[in-house]
Amino acid sequence: MRSYTLRLFATLMKTVWNKVKTSTRQGLYIRNANKLNSGRYTCIVENPLETVTGSAQLTIISTPGEVSGVYGEDSTITTTSIRLRWLAPPDNGSPVTKYDIQAFSNLDPEWKTVASDIPDATANVDAELFKAAIVTGLLPDNNYNFRLIAYNALGNGPASLQSASYRTLSSPPTKAPTGVGGGGGTVGVLSIIWQPLHPSEHGGRGIGYIVYWRKKSDSDVRWFKLTNKRSPDKYQSLVIS
Q1: Residue 9 burial (CB < 10 Å; 0-12/13-18/19+)?
Q2: What is the CATH number of the domain that holds 112?
Q3: What one-character DSSP code corresponds to residue 107?
Q4: Number of domains in the chain
Q5: What is the percent of the chain where pLDDT is above 70?
Q6: What's the rounded Cα separation, in Å, for the pair 47 and 33?
Q7: Is 39 helix (H, G, I), strand (E, B) or coil?
Q8: Residue range 33-79, pLDDT digits in tens
Q9: Which of 90, 148, 180, 197 is the most exposed place for a label (fewest CB within 10 A)?
Q10: 93, 118, 217 from 145: Cα distances, Å
Q11: Residues 197, 201, 203, 205: is their CA dihedral positive or negative?
């Protein structure tokens, strides 16, 4: 336990302390206090006749420290999920209550929260030293990096360093193209257009599109099929003649 002795010298107030004075009390406070300032403080008041002392224990609490050791378990990777592990941060005097997990991918390079409000109690692994959680809702065939943020009663700590990159397994596309329409052709020719999937939604290599069509009046007729294996960046069209 640290112990400190304070004497009311002006030189002390210029460096570490600020003076507080109101109509009912006066004293000193520490500027930019941190955990290292915790300890037992003794204030000494002296005059030629006597010396009076008073002591108090000071404990500094703050938001959590930085989460460390973030990594993914390769054996748990699926098309849409992965299990992450990390080391609990210093709680700085107030127990960690929850975590947020953020991620970015090679095809969407902006940090986004992919799991939030993970209770500290449910993340305990290995005698509370390691924590773990399964992240779901990822996109197939994307390379992801992860980082964590810890919270306690005072707020959130800093984001951890990012993890290594982990690639989810590939799968068929899980989203259909949007903006499907037609028109704009000449006599006997119809253009079919649609908005292609974002690269992060391809689910794997070799994206292509199959267009099924039939006349509106032929509701009982089988669908005709056209195949296009290009992957454009803008609206795409196929011509039926």
Answers
A1: exposed
A2: 2.60.40.10
A3: T
A4: 3
A5: 78
A6: 30
A7: strand
A8: 777 777 887 777 777 888 888 888 888 888 999 999 999 999 999 99
A9: 180
A10: 30, 18, 51
A11: positive
Classify residue 109: in a domain, yes or no.
Answer: yes
Tokens 């779901």, residue located: 136
Please state the rounded mean pLDDT for residues 164-183: 90
Query: Which residue, chain included where needed, has tokens 């943020």?
Result: 149
Cα radius of gyration rounded to whole Å, the chain: 31
Does the residue 172 lie in any domain?
no
What is the rounded average pLDDT of the residues 134-142?
Answer: 96
Residues 208 and 142 in one domain: no
Please provide the distance, in angstroms rounded to a whole number, between the alpha carbons at the two ends of the chain.
87
Task: State whether residue 11 is helix, strand or coil.
Answer: helix
Neighbours of 150 (CB within 10 A): 28
Which of 21-25, 55-59, 108-112, 182-186 ranks highest by mean pLDDT?
108-112
Amino acid at 146: F
pTM of the model: 0.74
Give the number of other Cβ atoms within 10 Å of residue 228's Cβ.
16
Q: Which two tokens stand for residue 65?
A: 């420290």
| CB 26 within 8 Å of CB 8 | no
**173 within a domain of the structure (yes/no):** no
**pLDDT digits 0-9 by tens, 86-135:** 999 999 989 999 999 999 999 989 999 999 999 998 888 765 578 999 99
Q: Left (φ > 0), alpha (ψ -120 to 50) or beta: where does 214 sit? A: beta
Run of H or E including 10: helix 10-15
Show the domain range for 17. Answer: 3-58
Task: Say yes or no: 39 and 114 in one domain.
Answer: no
Q: Which residues pair with 221 in a beta bridge?
A: none
User: At a CB cut-off of 8 Å and minimum separation 6, what does 222 contact?
Assistant: 214
